[in-house]
């Protein structure tokens, strides 16, 4: 139905062309934006913790409106966490590529970058698992129901993202590390 209708002004072919709806590289001033998203994530984590603590104090008769308000805050935290992880993971990916191509003897530095990259991807997988019940409980968050775009259900996209993260964590990164180990000359220590 509606597939990026703003492109229809260019041509019908442009409007109907299938384009990826996800980014594979961050935009803007990457180091600055990355730090901003990390700060946002830390501050929203405080809000997330407070909402979860407050929920225990909410009387039963007030739970429905409380959850309606709380889900937006919890979702906003999960979104900021995703952005922080995305910006950091992409910078680590790029740093890993550069180091593996330019510093074949820098195995220790490469391992530090690799380990942090793996940690960030695992955090994002955990973030998806924690955010999924929020997405499933609040249809306002599901872009499937937006009148101006055509997306799959949010929970379906989150399951797909989780599968992608599993492949990156369990297959892609280990294969990348083994390639580096195969092509990196070992330095003899005397």
Molecular structure report:
With 190 residues, the protein is mainly α. The protein has one domain (30-183). The chain contains 5 helices and no strands. Helix 3 packs antiparallel against helix 4. The longest helix is centred in the middle third of the chain and has 40 residues, at 63-102. The chain is globular and about 65 Å long. The protein starts with 11 loop residues before the first helix and ends in a 7-residue tail after the last helix. The model has no long low-confidence stretch (mean pLDDT 86).
Task: Supply Rg.
Answer: 21 Å
Count of domain modules:
1
Helix fraction?
55-70%
Order of helices and strands: HHHHH
User: Can you tell me the overall shape?
Assistant: globular
Give the biggest sheet: none
Count of alpha/pi helices: 5
Distance between the termini: 68 Å
Q: Which strand-content bin applies to the residues?
A: under 5%
Helix- and strand-based class? Answer: mainly alpha
Number of strands: 0
> Which assembly state applies to the chains in this document?
single chain
Q: Which ranges are low-confidence, i.e. pLDDT below 50, for 5 or more consecutive residues?
A: none
Mean pLDDT: 86
Quickly describe the structure.
The chain has 190 residues and is mainly alpha-helical.
Record the SSE blueprint.
Layout: H1 12-16, H2 30-55, H3 63-102, H4 107-137, H5 154-183
Helix pairs in contact: 2-3, 3-4, 4-5
Essential attributes:
mainly alpha; 190 residues; globular; 0% strand
């Amino acid at each position: 139905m509606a597939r990026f209708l703003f492109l229809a002004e260019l041509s019908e072919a442009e409007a109907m062309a299938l384009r990826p709806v996800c980014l594979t590289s961050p935009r803007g001033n990457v180091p600055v934006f990355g730090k901003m998203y990390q700060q946002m994530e830390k501050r929203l984590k405080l809000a997330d913790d407070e909402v979860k603590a407050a929920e225990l104090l909410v009387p039963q008769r007030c739970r429905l409106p409380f959850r309606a308000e709380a889900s937006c805050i919890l979702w906003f935290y999960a979104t900021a966490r995703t952005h922080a992880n995305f910006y950091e993971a992409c910078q680590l990916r790029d740093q890993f590529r550069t180091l593996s191509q330019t510093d074949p003897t820098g195995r220790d530095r490469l391992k530090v970058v690799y380990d942090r990259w793996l940690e960030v991807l695992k955090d994002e997988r955990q973030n998806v698992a924690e955010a999924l019940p929020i997405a499933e409980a609040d249809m306002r968050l599901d872009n499937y129901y937006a009148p101006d775009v055509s997306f799959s259900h949010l929970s379906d996209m989150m399951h797909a993202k989780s599968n992608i993260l599993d492949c990156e964590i369990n297959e892609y990164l280990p294969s990348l590390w083994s390639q580096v180990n195969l092509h990196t000359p070992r330095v003899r220590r005397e």
